[in-house]
Amino acid sequence: MNIRQDIHNSEIPLLCQACEARHRGLCGALDPSQLVALSKQSWKQTVETGSELVGDAEKVASYSNVLSGVIKLSKTLADGRQQIVGLQFAPDFLGRPFKTESALNAEAATEVSLCSFPTALVERMMKDSPELEHRLLVQTLKELDEARDWMVTLGRKTAAEKVASFLLLIARNINPCRPLSQKEVVFDLPLTRADIADFLGLTIETVSRQMTILRKDGVIAIESNRHVTVRNMERLERRAGA
Amino acid sequence: MNIRQDIHNSEIPLLCQACEARHRGLCGALDPSQLVALSKQSWKQTVETGSELVGDAEKVASYSNVLSGVIKLSKTLADGRQQIVGLQFAPDFLGRPFKTESALNAEAATEVSLCSFPTALVERMMKDSPELEHRLLVQTLKELDEARDWMVTLGRKTAAEKVASFLLLIARNINPCRPLSQKEVVFDLPLTRADIADFLGLTIETVSRQMTILRKDGVIAIESNRHVTVRNMERLERRAGA
DNA sequence: CGATAGTTTGACACAGCTCAATAGGCGTGG
DNA sequence: CCACGCCTATTGAGCTGTGTCAAACTATCG
Fold this sequence. Notes:
The structure is a homodimer.
Chain A: H1 14-17, H2 32-40, E1 43-47, E2 52-54, E3 62-68, E4 71-76, E5 82-88, E6 93-94, E7 105-108, E8 112-118, H3 119-128, H4 130-156, H5 159-173, E9 185-188, H6 193-200, H7 204-216, E10 220-223, E11 227-230, H8 233-239
The structure holds a DNA duplex.
């Protein structure tokens, strides 16, 4: 039995054919011949929860597209206090071009699958393909917008609002095929309470207490610590403080 | 008496000849003919302290280079709580390409001079000039790094560390010709106590108290509320918590 | 079924907030 | 030049939200 050759896919490397990043991610900027060049030097990998992808102040040899799972980007003060400064979902691009050393720590919050390529190759292709650099600019601007939104959460919201904001963020990002604006949303939390605390600038205990309040008030339901049902998105949004 | 025609400057528009942004800013990406095209549709303006440059959810018709002064970028919650999410100094680029509506508020924190141009023109030039888009990407990545650094300050530092971090930020950015790593640094604060509080996620009173402590401990000196002398940068750095 | 890591709950402490009063800087007008 | 008023900043006193420490509970997995 022959595999039907789809015209659209005929020149696309096998590695890329089923890849999300080719559509919504960075690789969408590349034409088939560029995809072939990139795919020859790229590799897919699956990493387990907790493994460090990029260390702070470490040389970075590869960039990646996130294909599935959640990555946490964090910074640590000298005395060990930690702050998560961003979460990355598929099909985000992981890496900081034009800098050899990372200024932050990237760690798999869940099991994560990646498609990685050498930094040098990406930077070379960026010179040749303005469209690639354009996509990267668009993603970077998006991340900057998100970072600034989160600064409001960190600086001006109460613990209750912070936790609601976090649940809202996850509800909106974790399900790739999210039917927006439906009342009830179900997902597994990609982060532990400790991670959530580090993301919100709170302690584990405060996060836990606020989750309990949301549960007792019937805004959410929780099963076995990780599995969350948002009973009513609107109420959650109201609790997140605009 | 003739003005000597410098070869380097001979084709540069008058408007641009003394401009900082042509060297360290975005315009450095442009060749003389592009500079001429841009300068024909650009204009310099000076705006006074407190005037709003871009309103939240407002249509943006022009982008600008900051030539002098300080701009604060802020976001406001429904009930009026405010957070400053970034400060811009010369020769930063003010604007958010690829979005017609602003998601934040830009206001002159001091008297500010700007060189402005129509958004449409910049976006057209970006298509033709990858170098321009490249510079914008580099600036955006820098702002993202800064935003993430500040998230650590907002989420994990104490009030004392926050105020020290703020003074450090200003000391490092306000003086264009800063002789780095000299022990004593003098500057005028570009922000009121209320602005500082909104930047740090604190109240005016807490900011004031922490400044008083720094003053009494001899780390800084303050004259007439705005004029600050950092007596010892190293001590200030230590108080900022890494 | 016990071990371990993660989570919840409780009691208490304290950093930073709120409200209120005072002090200082600066421009205006006598 | 001083007197006044306005605005901003400082200082004080008390309160409260969130952190700290400690203990109990729960899920998961061998």
